[in-house]
What does this fold into?
Amino acid sequence: MEPDADMEPPDAGMEPPDAGMEPDAGPADAGSKPDAGKADAGVGGNYVLNLSGFNAFAGDMVHLKVKSSTGATTYGQAQGRVNAAGNVRLTVNAVLFTGVSYRADFYVDVNNDNAYSFTQDHSWRRAVTGPASNGNLNDNFTFNTTYTDITPF
It folds into this structure.
């Protein structure tokens, strides 16, 4: 039996943590691909979100979803805990395709209920465009208090 072309070994796409960055547990769910109907779409690039300055939330979980630009479709998600230095790295594997627009919605689960609530959690949105050659994208974000309602998450 041939292995599924979309399946990767459990450690595929994981990068060694940078100093002060805590690696995530990897994607929790790989959703559908935006170019899945194209025969030449190939494997998409990884979206890596590096968060810093989240010191007040050390130990709290951060949840990330990469969605279509309208938010109607989720292509993948990841989660990880903020480390003692206030940093976390979240990776969504094989999700970015050249020239396709996405949004990356993420939140700190301040009330620790494992569910998003704009009135209780802190949330942000990033506009993302798939880089050339279905490459990987490293996106750096520093904590700020300009929150965005990402409902529905």
User: Anything to note?
Assistant: The radius of gyration is 15 Å. The chain has one domain: 27-35+42-142. The longest strand covers residues 88-96. The beta strands are 27-30, 45-52, 61-68, 74-81, 88-96, 101-108, 122-129, 137-142.
